[in-house]
Amino acid sequence: MSTPPPTGRPGHVPAADRYDTMTYRRCGNSGLQLPALSLGLWHNFGADVPPQRRRDVACRAFDLGITHFDLANNYGPPAGSAEESLAQIMASDLGPHRDELVISTKAGYDMWAGPYGDWGSRKYMISSLDQSLRRMGLDYVDIFYSHRPDPNTPLEETMGALDTAVRSGKALYAGISNYRPAETKQALEILRRLGTPLLIHQPRYSMLDRWIEDGLLDLLGEERVGCIVFSPLAQGQLTDRYLNGIPAGSRPTHSIFLKQNDIAANLPRIRRLNEIAAGRGRTLAQLALAWVLRDERVTSAVIGASSVEQLEANVKALDGPPFEPAELEAIERCLAETKPG
């Protein structure tokens, strides 16, 4: 279903060396490898972003060896528009390279009105995947996720929907996101019985949010399930954006995900981490990305990018030297000594 570039308009010609410098990591016990950094199409690929900017970022990501584009049905704004943006980019530029790309989407959050447009029922999951494929103009996605556990639907039903998606050929692999360790254990056991192994888990993880270290990472490592982390920059806190205060009109002034009080509480840690980054000759964002990738159980980290320049700067996180034990100890002391509360 992917459409080739329109007649008379040349599509993007990828860089010949695009696989020479990117690091790829095997995803759990599978044959699939993911780039150490994946491109997330959440905030920066909605209808409110100029099409040329979206195209430039996606094509430059591919040139840099980022082969994994991470989406969900509700990414935008408005919901669904990020998937439509991907369809446009595939049609104009990347369609001929579909087999070089790993494209993922998710279902689990509110998407349409009524009782069948949210959570984890079989009805919602399969309907949502069909809608996502139509929006993206694709025959299949590489990974289809349950975006969150549904407390009112049997886990067997939600995992059964993932199994159906794979067996039908609409997805190649099954994933989950935002599941706690006990839920993850149950999910992977159900999928194993069904004959569709759990490929990957996508949890939130950063220097400022380390909940997955309390059991989830150990479980994923023991079970050989991949781990791709989102919000490694803590919604922009682990960048230079807020070091000198919160700019008027920036995300914390209107976002439900990032609050001004949270930034204020974290600033002592953020500023100290920035000093550590400078000591390594890196930016704070590069330090934060390298830090989440220091653990071999983390397959990839999802990054957003509002410009080509921001994308290129974040990818340079992979160029730095490995952390010395003393550097990791300094980071741990910083996080402990300046922890809010």
Explain what the structure shows.
The chain has 341 residues and is of the alpha/beta class. It has a domain at 24-235 and 295-319: NADP-dependent oxidoreductase domain (TIM Barrel, Alpha-Beta Barrel). Helices cover 37% and strands 13% of the residues. It has helices spanning 51-63, 81-94, 122-136, 155-167, 181-194, 216-223, 260-279, 284-292, 308-315, 325-337, and strands spanning 24-26, 33-35, 37-40, 68-70, 102-107, 141-146, 171-177, 198-202, 226-229, 300-303. It has an eight-stranded parallel β-barrel, surrounded by five helices. Strands 1-2 form a two-stranded antiparallel sheet.
Report low-confidence residues grouped into runs of 5 or more.
Answer: 1-8
Strand content: 5-15%
Q: SS-based structural class?
A: alpha/beta
Helical content class: 25-40%
Reading off the top of the CATH hierarchy, the class of the domain at 24-235 and 295-319 is best stated as Alpha Beta
Mean pLDDT: 93
